[in-house]
Amino acid sequence: MLALLAAGADSTEITDGFAVCPLCATLPRARVLRSAVAAVAGIEGDAVGTVVSDGVETPVPVRAGLPPHKDVRGDVHAMALYAGSGVPLINEVRPAAAIVRELAGGAEALLRAW
Fold first, then answer.
1. Residue 60, Cβ neighbours under 10 Å: how many?
2. Alpha-carbon distances of 3 from 10, 85, 90, rounded to whole Å
3. What is the pLDDT, as a whole number, of residue 3?
């Protein structure tokens, strides 16, 4: 999260650096933080961390497209930190539910004003 909050206008790039996806039919390309691309280049070994699902711990391969989340452990700074070009506008961490409530409330207020 801190990497996203610290990101500036030139902090992202479109890359296939996190393209390990055995189920993908095409080579996936995505916009991620440059710091993640640099960090994954320094990882030695086959795994960047682990993910726990239904009590089972599974390795996360280096350059996997899986972004870090609450069930992921390891070198999260070297995982797919997806971020669009609007990332410099992020200035705080808020729960998604609060953001959706705020957006819905604003939309409702605009509709009532019509």
1. 24
2. 13, 14, 11
3. 86
